[in-house]
Amino acid sequence: MEAMRPLDALNLARNKKVMIDLKNGKQILGTLKAFDIHINIVLDDAEEREAGEVKRKLGKVFIRGDTIILISPQ
Questions:
Q1: pTM of the prediction?
Q2: pLDDT of residue 1
Q3: Of 3, 12, 24, 41, most Cβ neighbours within 10 A?
Q4: 34-43: Cβ within 8 A, 24+ apart
């Protein structure tokens, strides 16, 4: 069996909720809609979280891959 590559793991998370930790300390939760080889990401129904609480609703967002520290499927 071939080992799963990072983009394969992201592909399995498509249309599912993911939590993204950013370099600036923010957390974004949303539905993964699209990504590219640079891990630039489009989320739908996104919201910014702080200490597990919704800080603000963002809707559809584009996140640059170089700002991401961690992507966690929910």
A1: 0.90
A2: 52
A3: 41
A4: 35/7, 35/10, 35/65, 36/65, 37/7, 38/65, 38/66, 39/6, 39/10, 39/65, 39/68, 39/71, 40/64, 40/65, 41/65, 41/68, 41/71, 43/18
